[in-house]
Amino acid sequence: MATILRPYLFSWTDVERSSDLDRFAMLLAAIPDEALVCALEAHRGHGRDRYPVRAMWNAVLAGIVLQHPSVASLLRELGRNAELRQICGFDPGQGSAAVPSPWAMSRFVASVVAQRRRIEAMFAELVGRLTTLRPDLGEELAFDGKAVPSFSTGRRRGSSGATSDPEAAWGTKTSRGTDTGGKAWEKVTRWFGYQLHLVVDARHEVPVAYEVRPASVSEVTRLVPMVEALARAHPEITRRCRTLAADRGLDAGEVNRALWQEYG
Known about the structure:
Blueprint (H helix, E strand, L loop, with lengths): L11 H6 L2 H11 L3 H11 L8 H13 L5 H10 L1 H7 L13 H12 L2 H18 L6 E10 L19 E10 L5 E18 L4 E9 L8 H11 L1 H6 L2 E3 L7 H11 L1
Parallel strand pairs: 1-5
Antiparallel strand pairs: 1-3, 2-3, 3-4
Helix pairs in contact: 2-4, 4-5, 4-6, 4-7
């Protein structure tokens, strides 16, 4: 019998079987966030420290891992889950009184968003670690986009003509195919918001590059720039790349020529 010598980075089955709090603890142990936290603490300066920066940052991460759709949902979870509060770093002696107010958490999230460059640096460091850990990382890449709807409806205000989310835009994605009976079908998805563009390692199922753009930005226009940015940030990944998969709609002459001439 042929022995498989650990062909994958990790087992997603093991991760999915872990409890939510276990997965959250895994993230806290791995994420290189010290520079970001120090910057957030410096930004707060000598202001009120009723809700510690480190605990609030960990709470933001918890909201992502636990898939809370809103700040309000996350705060409700923190209010009833003492173990989660303690893992985040809130004072256990205060009980649910340690949970930040909605206003304080919303303001903190805004300050985190303003640290975009440091967040990108964290991601780059994690990719760099994986590149060292897995010599085959990047051999099989894939590119795709994911719709990210805004909380705004996209309706323009009569007085200003602007929406409540001025950076968002309307996007449309069309999917086509043929059913089992040989009949052609077409599905059109329209949303107001953004689009997450991803380059992922298809074998290990981890992202190696990402960007968020208004939904109106076409995937076709972002594939080549993202590969170029990946080559600058992690040249070893593009050197290792053997295949790059994407939707059929991106199989365009200019895209193929640009990629083949530079990386083929």
